[in-house]
Specification:
single chain, 7-stranded parallel β-sheet, globular
Length: 428
């Protein structure tokens, strides 16, 4: 893997990306047949090397943070960029957890006898070469590499220019781990150029890349979806809702709503709109409003909300459709469950939505009728995450309906093929 590539000539970048694609395609065949033991050995070696090289990784990340701050990066992006000790620990644990997960490759399901005597089933197989384009979060480099490796895929990772130092530091550990397990080092390649034309080249190589997964801002994902010649697994944004039903337990409602917004601001599963049933608003909103105010969360409310919370700013129609990724929250009072579901259908992004209620029937209706990739009852939207779902880590959260939906883990990185077992049967 080159340490650097030409930054000025688009022809050079196109040739560089083609080389990466050819190497990834060749490596994908070896990874597809790699046994589980070898893949797990590679994951363990990557984790150990990241742990051993913490100081170098921290120094590289500090360089990215300082450069990002000098360029005036948004605080939410700087938060995503930072590799705190806890996030490095989580990255290492994610690698170990993925190693412990069952290997989906080669698993045969639904094997049944047909009247002809043959058995027909489905076998899980890798997608091939996965191209991942992402911004800011360097932990994606480790998570994506691990998930692709365990699911038998080669991957080409193109991180944002703001995380180049951190990503290259992680790339060294990944390459080390693959070599220790005697797997092809080109099975995971981290693009070493910040030239934007690399993205255009990557999404136009269907002969080398089987699927593209973009992780980043809405503009990036819209561009990839519009221009790609390769299938895309995507989500555009996360306008997540918590609806506090009239039958909610006040303590649960307070804890969940506060956590859903303030546990972290810059993530796609953070609550951006709070919906409150009119019958419980006078009881729950004053306490919640005070708690948000203590945490410097700016509230933007409908007219009914502002009667209860006079310090809230007036919400505009655009607020209901906005993913803030910041300490800003839209609040709307609604008549009932039907009105809440209608609001989510109109303004939501099909990412993650939650209801707080003690009414079983309403909870069931919310689960059935809200068309999002994750729908929750009495739990924070912040749980919409591959690690929290037991997937080890996630390569992204898909709001598509094909081929994967919700947090995309190992199974989402595989496909199926039909397998037929016979004993000399012929079709008459």
């Amino acid at each position: 893997m080159p340490e650097s590539v030409p930054e000025t000539q688009s022809g050079d970048i196109a040739a560089y990306m083609r080389d990466l694609g050819e190497q990834a395609r060749a490596a994908s065949r070896a990874l597809a047949r790699a046994d589980t033991t070898a893949k797990n050995q590679a994951l363990a070696a990557i984790a150990d090397d990241i742990d051993r090289r913490r100081d170098a990784l921290t120094e590289a990340n500090r360089g990215d943070l300082e450069a990002g701050a000098a360029k005036g990066l948004d605080p939410a992006l700087l938060d995503r960029l930072e590799l705190t000790p806890a996030r490095v620990d989580a990255m290492i644990e994610g690698l170990h957890q993925i190693a412990r997960l069952p290997d989906p490759v080669g698993a045969i399901t639904d094997l049944t006898y047909r009247p002809s005597g043959i058995q027909v089933g489905r076998m899980r197989v890798p997608l091939g070469v996965v191209g991942i384009i992402y911004e800011s979060r360097p932990n994606v480099t480790a998570d994506a590499a691990a998930l692709c490796l365990k699911s038998g895929n080669a991957t080409v990772l193109r991180g944002g220019s703001e995380a180049l130092r951190s990503n290259q530091a992680l790339a060294r550990s990944i390459r080390y781990g693959l070599e220790q397990a005697e797997l092809p080092a080109d099975g995971v390649q981290v693009v070493a150029t910040t030239d934007r034309s690399a993205v255009g080249a990557m999404i136009a190589m269907p002969e080398f890349v089987d699927v593209i997964i973009p992780r980043g801002g809405k503009g990036l994902i819209e561009r990839i979806s519009r221009e790609a010649r390769v299938p895309v697994i995507k989500h555009l944004h996360g306008v997540c809702h918590v609806y506090i039903d009239a039958a909610a337990d006040s303590e649960k409602a307070f804890d969940v709503a506060l956590n859903a917004k303030t546990q972290r601001y810059g993530t796609c599963n953070t609550m951006e709109t709070l919906l409150v049933a009119e019958d419980i608003a006078e009881t729950i909103l004053p306490r919640l409003g005070a708690a948000f105010r203590e945490r410097d969360v700016e509230l933007r409310g409908c007219p009914h909300t502002r009667k209860i919370l006079p310090h809230a700013l007036e919400a505009t129609e655009a607020d209901w459709d906005t993913e803030y990724l910041a300490p800003i929250l839209s609040v709307r009072l609604v008549a009932d469950l039907d009105a809440a579901i209608e609001h989510i259908a109109r303004h939501g992004s099909q990412h993650t939505d939650a209801i707080i209620t003690e009414n079983y029937s309403r909870a069931r209706r919310f689960l059935r009728e809200v068309d999002s990739s994750s729908v929750m009852v009495n739990a924070s939207t912040r749980f919409a995450d591959g690690f929290e779902y037991g997937l080890g880590a996630e390569i992204g959260i898909s709001t598509d309906k094909f081929h994967a939906r919700g947090p995309v883990g190992l199974e989402g990185l595989t496909s199926v093929k039909f397998v037929v077992l016979g004993d000399g049967e012929i079709r008459s």
